[in-house]
Design a protein that fits this description.
The protein has 331 residues and is α/β, with parallel strands linked by helices. Helices cover 49% and strands 19% of the residues. It has two domains: 163 residues, 3-Layer(aba) Sandwich (D-Maltodextrin-Binding Protein, domain 2); 116 residues, 3-Layer(aba) Sandwich (D-Maltodextrin-Binding Protein, domain 2), CATH 3.40.190.10. The protein has a six-stranded mixed sheet with strand order 2-1-3-10-4-11, with helices on both faces. Strands 7-6-8-5-9 form a five-stranded mixed sheet. α7 links the parallel β6 and β7. It is globular and about 60 Å long.
């Protein structure tokens, strides 16, 4: 009887063990399936910034289009380069994308020795989505209402003009450097950690001039504390038709505009890139997306994977020459 009971107990235990192992295997399979159905979009800026705002909208829209959970992973630091370094090491990862501003892709690798990725080698372009022309801004207490009057004022007040930027190597910094080079003026650079403190310094009169995006500048423009003189793009913005371009204000050919794009790590298959690109195209045609881009002070600037690749191939040498001529170095 004892032997029979022992055999029954062992059999029952084995059954329970088998059930337990089956449940564990099933749970692991479900977890694996869930992981394969999720994709991260790595963004190198804090929550709330314009790239993050558009990136979150894109993640939500892609989730609906592709029946897959896309989520944003913020990895701020080094002006977007820490995030790109993270993605560059994810070679062939089908579940990783990055949404990045142009400065991190084509300027930071030139300026900063600590940046270890090669934009042309370590990423597969998916699409550019929009760009954000910059406004040339002055403190409204100054007797300046045009590029011409800015140049005149600066020449008559040597050594008294300083300009702010969101940081060394930012497009704002480089746009002003090019402006200074073309006008042969002498301004003192005062870098800040981000657009908000840069604009606050301008409004307070701690600096006299800056280049900054439309969305960031709008509240201070509306308050009358700062004034817009010109815009950095080759063409005027439809919503700001009264503001001339820098090019038509005496500096022909001036065109310095940051853009934002979606990329995958190198090694991701073309069919996966095409799948995401097709979904992105549909998203960009919606009124909701158009309104969002206007809200962040941008304009649609859509390029396919092949067109984006050609843009990068042109932008990298362009900014290398730009930085060389300007003499900008990482301070």
């Amino acid at each position: 009887m004892k032997v029979r009971f022992l055999f029954l107990w062992i059999a029952a235990s084995m059954g329970l063990l088998s059930i337990g192992m089956s449940a564990q295997a099933q749970a692991q399979t479900q977890a694996s399936d869930a992981s394969q159905r999720s994709s991260r979009i790595v963004i190198g800026y804090p929550p709330g910034q314009s790239v993050d705002t558009v990136g979150r909208y894109l993640a939500s829209a892609l989730s609906k289009k592709l029946d897959r959970n896309f989520f944003v992973e913020n990895v701020p630091g080094q002006s977007g380069s820490i995030a790109l370094g993270n993605v560059a090491r994810s070679t062939g990862d089908l579940n990783t994308l990055t949404f990045s501003a142009s400065s991190a892709l084509v300027i930071n690798p030139i300026l900063f020795k600590a940046v270890r990725y090669n934009t042309l080698k370590h990423f597969e372009p998916v699409a550019t989505l929009y760009d954000t022309p910059l406004l040339l801004l002055v403190n409204s207490r100054l007797p300046i209402d045009s590029v011409e009057s800015l140049v005149s004022y600066a020449n008559s007040h040597p050594g008294e003009i300083s300009f702010s930027s969101p940081g060394v190597g930012s497009v704002s910094h480089l746009a002003m450097t090019e402006f200074i080079r073309r006008t042969r003026l002498k301004f003192v650079h005062v870098p800040y950690q981000g657009a908000a403190p840069s604009l606050t310094a301008l409004a307070a009169g701690q600096v006299q001039v800056t280049f900054e995006g439309v969305a960031a500048a709008t509240p201070l423009l509306q308050s009358g504390r700062i004034r817009a003189l010109a815009i950095s793009s080759a063409k005027r913005l439809p919503k700001l038709e009264s503001i001339p371009t820098v090019a038509e204000s005496g500096l022909p050919g001036f065109d310095v505009v940051p853009w934002v794009g979606l990329l995958a790590p190198s090694g991701v298959a073309p069919d996966r890139i095409a799948q995401i690109w097709n979904a992105v195209q549909a998203i960009l045609q919606t009124d909701e997306y158009t309104a969002l881009i206007e809200q962040v002070g941008g304009r649609q600037a859509v390029r396919s994977p092949a067109e984006f690749r050609r843009l990068l191939e042109a932008e990298v040498p362009r900014w290398q020459e730009f930085i060389k001529v300007s003499g900008v170095t990482a301070e």
